Amino acid sequence: MNFLVGHYVTIYMIHRPQPDNGAYEGLAPRLLNDCLNYARKSGFEFASIDELVADALAGNNRERPTICFTLDDGYQDQVDQLVPVLLQHDAKPTLYTIVDMVDRHDWPWDAKLNYAVWSSALSQVEFHYQQKPFKLDLTHPVARTHSRRQLTRFGKTLSSDDLMQFVQNAVAALAVELPTNAPLTYTPASWDSLRAAELQGLRIGSHACSHQVFAALSDAQISAELARANHRLGQEINNPSQVFCYPSGTAQDYLPHQAELVKAAGFVAALTAMPGNMRLQHIKEKPLHIKRHSFPNSFDKFVRYSSWLEYIRSSI
Ligand SMILES: [Zn+2]
């Protein structure tokens, strides 16, 4: 099929593993293992995102359909539970870290909102932020997920100062005491564990510093975050990825000209969270707007996303 549809690749974006307490939906290491077994037996090749980009930019083709794994954010449970499964299969994963989180400066604003929504003892919450009313239903898990999304979506539209105030107001309305350091379920990866994983074959990259979406930041703030993240990764990690990963990364989360700031910071390419398979030729044409599939929650979907069927479907 590669002959017919060209040399497409499937790039996966992975977030957290399934937590023990079922507080949110995560990826079960066993499902990941089953998918990797299937991919290997079916003749897929694994490539790191840096390898894929290098091939694309050089105009090289790949002999076989290729799968690439990226993980976002840099929590310790990702390093402990998901990275080992990927490394065991030589799947060449890359983990994009929120540098301020790993540096223990602060935990990300969206993680705080997630924590507050899931640990609130209330069932209904109403509050205002700058005239905007919020009505949060917390009566069951699906409602909590919906409420969390509502807050995150709004938070993405705010400047840094407003965002801090908004998070504070929301957390107060939810009647939650926010710990200064991330609680256990949000423990960031340590630089030591990242370095140890790097020696085993994990590549580590920049997901900027604060996890604030670029669309809400000034160009100067973005360039400062990019430079600071590069500096810290250069100090802590042997061989950081030359590919950047946008915070959040949907179409609304960064503006076209901001991709140029990423390039100016020394990156050859950048990962979005926009779904789709890509051909190497597309990566070559738009290296700063690479699409990824969110890793699915079922084996069948993995098979479909990884196949040329999905490529054709997403092209129509
Ligand atoms: Zn992220």
UniProtKB/TrEMBL annotation:
Pfam families: Polysacc_deac_1. PROSITE patterns: NODB. Gene3D superfamilies: Glycoside hydrolase/deacetylase (3.20.20.370). It comes from the Bacteria. Keywords: Signal. Residues 65-316 form the NodB homology domain. It is found in: Secreted. This is Peptidoglycan/xylan/chitin deacetylase (PgdA/CDA1 family). It comes from Cellvibrio fibrivorans.
